[in-house]
Amino acid sequence: MYPPKGPTFKGSVTWYTIDLDLPPSERWKLIITDKKAEVRAIRDLANAFVPSGKLIDLVDKDLVRAFDILVSSCIVIGNLIHGRNMDFGLFMGWDMKNRSWLITEKLKPLVVNIDFQRRNKTVFKSTNFAGYVGMLTGIKPHAFTLTMNERFSLDGGYIGIVEWILGNRDGMWMSFLTRSVLENATSYEEAKNLLAQTKLLAPAYFILGGNQTGQGCVITRSRVLSLDIWEIELKLGRWYVLETNYDHWKEPLFLDNRRTPAMKCMNQTMQANISLKTVYDVLSTKPVLNKLTTYTTLMDVNKGKLESYIRDCPNPCMPW
């Protein structure tokens, strides 16, 4: 239900401002002060599953699972709505009593919205986990929207990190690349080129939306190069693209098929009825919404709007 309420809505997300003109050591003090107990709790819990206990390692070593959809709305020519469910915590401890993932539940209080500013003007906005400085979900107002998803591959993040440790450091952390793009790129095309061409430490999907008709794509990446750029193409009747952690030209894993029900929802909604409300409804439909879902974010690039909501998936609900 939109505006959010009911059993799937667990709470709104607090906004903070980060002043990029401050030294890095000074920027995050308010957020960390507000979220100190939660940061400590997630660190301690992560230590039980990942020896380093570092959230950056959890995220950038291939563990970002999400559902993203880019929709070309015909209500306003050129308008794009970008929605995502961020899922996190698979196989990292199951709470038998509450029937939920331990890391997932601990992360929900850490979800924050951040307005990154320079000289008191917004550079970009992001939905983040407090204590994590990479970017997984963000908007450059009036220019583009950007999210990142895990891509399963044998040539995965652990190989890239081993190479990085051994001294081959020409690959970039994925969420540091998305942060750099959000901060520095000035257009959809510039962002697309950087996301497609920069060497990475792990394979990934980048979901990128622009501010003009047809500017929306899913960039499928290996660590070294772009394998595919799948774009919205209205002339072909492709008014949306969606990504669920699987290459779009292949069938998803049968145990994790969020693509088929999501496409069914989108096709029943139809392009003429697309709005923040209807996209939120799709993102609230099981199994698109599942026990791993921490938050839902909706972005409207032309309005420069980002709104996020902490989610819950009442039983019966798929664990993933």
UniProtKB/TrEMBL annotation:
GO terms for cellular component: extracellular region; lysosome; membrane. The keyword Oxidoreductase does not apply. This is Acid ceramidase. PANTHER family: ACID AMIDASE, ACID CERAMIDASE. Belongs to the acid ceramidase family. It comes from the Eukaryota. InterPro entries: Acid_ceramidase-like, Acid_ceramidase_N, CBAH/NAAA_C. It comes from Salmo trutta (Brown trout). Its EC number is 3.5.1.23. Pathway: Lipid metabolism; sphingolipid metabolism; Sphingolipid metabolism. It is found in: Lysosome; Secreted.
